[in-house]
Amino acid sequence: MFQLNDQFLEEMGLGAMPAEQKQAFLTHIRSELESRVGPRLSEGLSESQLTEFEGIIDHNKAVIESFLARYAPDYTADAKFQNLLMASGGDATNPQLIEAYAATKWLEVNRPDYPQVVAATLDEIKSEIVANRSAFLGQ
Question: Residue 96 half-sphere exposure, CB side, CA atoms within 13 Å?
């Protein structure tokens, strides 16, 4: 997966951007990516699917438990859950960890093209950055 960090800025030709502007710019790019990806992912989904995903991201325990019972009843054995567990410090009962896994699993089930949608959207943003690089650098 991609990382929005100093290396990303270097790849975009923005390594010379003043340090105090880098984090704000990366935050803006992350926000822009999210605002573009969301509507694209919702295309073609039913109202019930969207409501379910909203319940997951809004930390609705009943929705999360119901979803996991249907699609990942043994989720703690899933390699993706184990990876999240290791990255988060090792508490398998942590609600944020379970919610993150449920959101990832939901996307896997309902929008298996999620990685491609994110990659295509990021490519669009990269093209826009490159086309406007001098403006971002104040040149």
Answer: 5
